[in-house]
Design brief:
Elements (H helix, E strand, L loop, with lengths): L2 E5 L2 E2 L2 E2 L1 H17 L3 E6 L3 H8 L5 E5 L9 H14 L2 E7 L2 H14 L2 E6 L1 E2 L4 E6 L4 E6 L5 E5 L14 E4 L30 E5 L9 H11 L2 E4 L1 H5 L20 E5 L5 H7 L4 E6 L6 H4 L2 E4 L2 H17 L2
Helix pairs in contact: 3-4, 5-9
This protein binds flavin-adenine dinucleotide (FAD).
Flavin-adenine dinucleotide (FAD) binds next to helix 6, helix 7, strand 16 and helix 9.
């Protein structure tokens, strides 16, 4: 019997949507281990997110310290490892975001834990399925160490619902040692749009948009829908749009309710990042492109004509309400 320590990311006093997928997986794992889910919030602002977190698990542990203001795997991993021991956890989990993928292997090393990365299914207490080969196959991995480390693919688990009101406790960060690493600065795109990983609607463009200026029409569509912007790697590599818009195997994995793929061919590496979307709309001038095999709605058309028409129709609909 053991608990599941779920490292959860938060922003502005709320758990991130991506953390909710991990909580669904963590609840399943906890059933197999006969324990309960303990949410771990680390960093400056952790306390402010604890009331929201307590709605999703029976226990929340907050480790708040000025020394943990900026995320560094070097400083966060010892906190995670210490809390695994303190909470009697046999499994430690996080969503496979850029932070989760950076943090959990280092915590696993500190704990001598075997790791199952980017899991898509919990099969038993110790076995997990995970996509491989750009999502074309699944492997089942068994982890036989006393503590198991897991990262969870967000698009494969529903967001957890609220489960009541858990208790919140605080724990000390201990001596924070960055092992010579220093946080210098964070270069992040400032945007009023939702985070790509958390968004319910994503509008993504590909190489067929031809240049960055042309993405403005997709941004107008995104803003009408309250959507995040995404892109194929061909578009980000060409410098048309910021690199952190990239969706796919080597970009972000997203699973919004609605995904627009505009002028994107649908290479397997792109599909690996978005095929878990609930509804996929593809706009492409070539009817034979693979994107139409995963699309729920496909429009064979030039974006130059069809996207402005779509925007005009949405504006008309909004005005009539
Ligand atoms: C190891 C590895 C990892 C990779 N990781 C990723 C990843 O994470 N994400 C990713 O996206 N890719 C990734 N790729 C690249 C991937 O293989 C493709 O090259 C890339 O996704 C293609 O991007 P695209 O669809 O925008 O471009 P293209 O394949 O060139 O497609 C452009 C599309 O635009 C359409 N088009 C052109 N003009 C118009 C128009 N006027 N109106 C409408 N449609 C138009 C064309 O018909 C075409 O379908 C990876 C590749 C490798 C090898």
């Amino acid at each position: 019997m053991g608990n599941v320590l779920a490292f959860c990311e938060y922003a502005d006093g709320q758990l991130r949507t991506s953390a909710l997928a991990n909580l669904t997986a963590s609840r399943e794992i906890a059933k197999h281990h006969g324990g309960e889910v303990v949410i771990l919030l680390v960093g400056k602002g952790a306390q402010a997110a604890s009331a929201h977190a307590a709605k999703f698990a029976p226990k929340v542990v907050v480790v708040e310290s000025d020394a943990l203001e900026h995320y560094l795997a070097e400083t966060y991993a010892p906190v995670v490892a210490a809390q695994v021991k303190a909470t009697g956890a046999t499994v430690v989990t996080a969503t496979a975001t850029s932070v989760g993928k950076d943090l959990i292997p280092r915590a696993a090393a500190l704990l001598d834990a075997g790791q199952a990365s980017d899991i898509s299914k919990v099969e038993s207490a110790t076995t997990f399925a995970r996509p491989i080969l750009a999502g074309n196959a699944y492997s089942t991995v068994a982890i036989n160490t006393p503590v198991i480390a897991v990262t969870v693919r967000q698009s494969e688990f529903e967001a957890a619902g609220e489960s009541g009101m858990g208790s919140v406790s605080t724990a000390d960060a201990g001596s924070v040692n960055a092992l010579g690493a220093t946080f210098v600065k964070l270069d992040a795109q400032k945007s009023d749009r939702p985070d790509l990983g958390d968004a319910k609607v994503v509008v993504a463009g590909g190489r067929g948009m031809k240049n960055g200026e042309n993405f403005k029409v997709l941004e107008e569509l995104a803003d009408l829908l309250g959507a995040a912007m995404g892109a194929s790697r061909a578009a980000t590599d060409a410098g048309m749009v910021p690199a952190d818009w990239q969706v796919g195997q080597t970009g972000k994995i997203v699973a919004p309710n609605l995904y627009f793929a505009v002028a994107i061919s649908g290479a397997i590496q792109h599909l690996a990042g978005m095929k878990g979307s609930k509804t996929i709309v593809a706009i492409n001038k070539n009817k034979d492109e693979p994107i139409f095999q995963v699309a729920d709605y496909g429009l064979v058309a030039d974006w130059e004509k069809s996207v402005p028409e779509l925007i005009a129709e949405i504006k008309k609909l909004k005005a009539s309400r």
